[in-house]
């Protein structure tokens, strides 16, 4: 089953540009070029976000991106790391810890389980990140441990993604309606 899982990750990797995934961050500049701001004219609020990047291909595989929410007054409301885990076993994530000891609020977003022939679990979750934590994440690549029922795994946030996103958050937001 693990071979099937790894093969499916490779297939997703081949289609990465079509579905908004970028498995390697590359330089800070290349990350910055793909940060977008999406504004909802009806709600008068917006999201600043990066592409999705691979944090780990080990079981469970983990991809992540940053998102910042801006209120109707174009004020930063909160920053989060959104992540998705892909697993071919009965593994469910219920908390995250950082190797440096920082604490992040964990929000389970969704959990999709399929067991037709083989098990497939896809989970989406978010971690609240303060601006000072984002500044720390921008200094070094940072390892996280996903802890759950029947499994633990590690994934890494690339400092270039964190640094480019920090610059985007700190940029003049006059164009953010």
From TrEMBL:
Keywords attached to this entry: Plasmid, Signal
Q: Where is the signal peptide?
A: 1-20
**Protein name, entry field:** Lipoprotein
Organism for this UniProt entry: Shewanella aestuarii
């Amino acid at each position: 089953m693990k071979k099937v899982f790894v093969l499916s990750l490779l297939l997703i990797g081949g289609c990465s540009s079509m579905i908004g995934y970028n498995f390697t961050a590359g330089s800070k500049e290349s990350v910055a070029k793909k940060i977008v701001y999406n504004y909802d004219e009806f709600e008068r609020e917006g999201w600043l976000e990066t592409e999705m990047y691979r944090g780990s291909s080990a079981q469970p595989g983990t991809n992540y991106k940053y998102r910042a929410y801006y209120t109707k007054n174009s004020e930063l409301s909160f920053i989060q790391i959104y992540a998705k885990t892909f697993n071919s076993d009965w593994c469910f994530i219920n908390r995250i810890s950082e190797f440096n000891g920082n604490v992040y609020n964990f929000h389970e977003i969704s959990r999709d389980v399929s067991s037709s022939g083989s098990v497939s679990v896809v989970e989406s979750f978010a971690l609240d990140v303060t601006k000072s934590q984002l500044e720390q994440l921008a200094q070094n690549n940072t390892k996280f441990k996903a802890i759950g029922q029947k499994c633990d795994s590690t994934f890494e946030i690339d400092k270039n993604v964190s640094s480019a996103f920090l610059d985007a958050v700190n940029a003049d937001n006059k164009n953010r309606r």
